[in-house]
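Hey,
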Amino acid sequence: MSSQSESNEYDIPPVIPLTQMEMKEDGTSIVKRVRPLTYALMAFVKNILNEPDTIDITDDEMEGEWNYRFSTDDDVVYNLYINTYEQSEIITLDVYASTIDTELVDEVLVNGFIVEANLNLAIGQIQKISNTLRFHASIAVEGIASQEKDYSGPHLISPKLFANMFNYALSAFPNIASDFVVLQDTD
C-alpha cells in the first residue's frame, strides 16, 4: 500500500488529465472523470508501454477496459484484456487464445493438463472454453485513492501493479498455450 508521501516513488509523470473528453456516435461529446484504478491503467499503457492510452470508460465512470492483441512465434493469436472495477476496487486480466481448430481429442487428458498447469501458476487460473484457452487473474485493491467525485489530488495506485500482471501473463500464458497446442496434435 502506498501513502501520499510515496506518490512520486514510481517516476510516472502526471501527464494524464483527471477528466477525459469522449466523442459519442451522434457527434456530441461527454466529459468523463478518470477514477483511481483506471487512471493507473492509463499511466501503465501510456507511460510504461508507450502505447496510446485508449481506455474505454463506462458512462457511469466506474469501469474501464484496455485490450491488447499479440501473437507468438508459433502463430497463436492472443487477445488480452485488463478491466478496472472502481466500485469493488478490483482489477482483472484475461488472455484468450484460440489454440485448436478441431474437436478436442481426449477430454480427460485436456482437463488433466489444465489442472497441472494451474498448479504451477503463481497467480491466475487457466480455463478451457470450447476451443479457446482463457487465463484469468484478478487483484483486489482497497482504499489507496479517493473515490470522491470531485477529488483532484494524486492517485496513489502504482501503474507497476498493472505492469506486473501484464508481464506475468505474457511470460506464463503463451508457453502454456503452446504446450496445449502440441498436446492437441497428438493422437
